[in-house]
Specification:
Elements: E1 2-4, E2 11-13, H1 37-61, H2 71-100, H3 103-125, E3 165-167, E4 175-177, H4 211-214, H5 224-227
């Protein structure tokens, strides 16, 4: 331990002496303080308390706002909102279309499609399907020359669960209709296609391919038993 005389400023070493060896004056050498364990423990507890209060304040403050200053964050939010909006719009649009189309309108649309398919069948084969062949000839090959179908992907019943009725005529257009809501043929609510649909014209012939090629993935029926009698489903 080293110390210095407060009077003559002489540097001294060793154990403190009451008199300065240089000037002989009496010196009061301060005693070294002994650490107080109770005080040290109190200070340690106080430091722990302050650290705890600091952590609580950080938790109450919530996440840092630095992410909101990043342009990538806003770009991701925009992309996410766009995808959600597109999916909601598509779903609502399909729902509106399904609700807006009345059963009569759907039946007439099916009848027009069947009439046009019959016209294309006649264009290739030279005549409408016979009564025995029925509308099933539009879906599967009835083993007649020049058949180039399928002309529709499938057949289904009308909106009221009744098969579409078909009967060829000796001259003119065949008879094609839906029995309507009452499911009885020959009543006032029967539905018929537009007559001009039986004449599809020839503009379609250059780019014509059968439904098997036009609709990849559609199962083309090859036998009458697969069609289910030929009248059970619609295009």
């Amino acid at each position: 331990m080293g110390y210095r005389c407060p009077y003559c400023k002489k540097a001294l070493a060793g154990e403190p002496e009451p008199h300065c060896p240089g000037c002989g004056r009496v010196m009061v050498v301060p005693q070294m303080r002994v650490p107080n364990p109770r005080l040290a423990r109190r200070r340690a507890l106080e430091a722990i308390r302050r650290e705890c209060e600091h952590k609580k304040a950080e938790l109450r403050a919530g996440p840092a706002l630095t992410a909101f200053r990043n342009p990538t964050f806003y770009f991701g939010v925009i992309v996410l909102l766009t995808l959600i909006g597109a999916s909601l719009f598509s779903a609502s649009d399909r729902a509106v279309v399904r609700r807006a189309e009345a059963p009569q309108s759907r039946a007439l649309r099916h009848l027009d499609a069947l009439a046009e398919a019959l016209g294309r069948y006649r264009f290739h084969v030279g005549a409408y399907p016979t009564e025995a062949q029925g509308l099933a000839a539009l879906v599967r090959d009835p083993q007649v020359p020049k058949w180039d179908g399928p002309y529709v992907s499938l057949l289904r019943s009308d909106p009221w669960g009744t098969p579409y009725a078909y009967k060829p005529a000796e001259t003119g257009y065949p008879t094609l209709y839906s029995c309507g809501p009452d499911r009885l043929a020959g009543t006032a609510d029967d539905l018929h296609p537009v007559a001009s649909r039986f004449e599809p014209g020839t503009a379609w012939t250059n780019g014509w391919v059968s439904a098997e090629l036009r609709l990849p993935g559609v199962r083309v029926l090859r036998s009458l038993s697969e069609v289910g009698g030929g009248q059970g489903r619609a295009p």
